[in-house]
Amino acid sequence: MPRPVSTLWGVSEPERRVLPATLKIAVGLLWAEGVALFALGIWLVVASFTGRPTDRAASITEAVVTVVLGLLLGVLGYLLVRRHAWARGPVIVLQLMLLAIGYFMISAGVVWAGVLVIALGLVVAGLLIAPASRESLGIH
Q1: Are the C-beta atoms of residues 132 and 17 closer than 8 Å to each other?
Q2: What is the C-alpha separation between 68 and 37, in angstroms, rounded?
Q3: Among residues 137, 135, 21, 16, which one has the least CA distance to residue 87?
Q4: Could you give the CA distance from residue 63 to residue 48 in angstroms, rounded to a whole number?
Q5: Which of 70, 82, 11, 80 is nearest to 35 (CA)?
Q6: What is the mean predicted confidence (pLDDT) over 96-110?
Q7: Please, what is the average pLDDT of the chain?
Q8: Is 26:80 a contact under the CB 8 Å cutoff?
Q9: Model-level pTM?
Q10: Which of 27, 57, 66, 137 is deepest in the core (most CB within 10 A)?
């Protein structure tokens, strides 16, 4: 068996196998969620300092949590690309949490956004549960 060859980026040849489409799409959607949450968090930070929130500490905390969640989704997506199978579980849990968020959005009257959030959570979780994604991550 040939020895893995390191490249400039530290990825050995066996790891450079092509990702299946299901995993590529899941990671792409995950990164899009991360970017959206990060951008929302930055906007909330700015709004916390430039606006007049009723509770500035709670407003800043909410903004920081949003930024951290955006970064977390980005890191988990990167770990999935690097084929760290353990990252799949936290991603699926976070995606299933979108079901509750979408439900409350629908209850609050933002039906179109709630339906999109629920659909996004189900699609990403489904793509990560797909056989091709599992096999690529070494989960049998």
Answers
A1: no
A2: 9
A3: 137
A4: 8
A5: 70
A6: 96
A7: 90
A8: yes
A9: 0.83
A10: 27
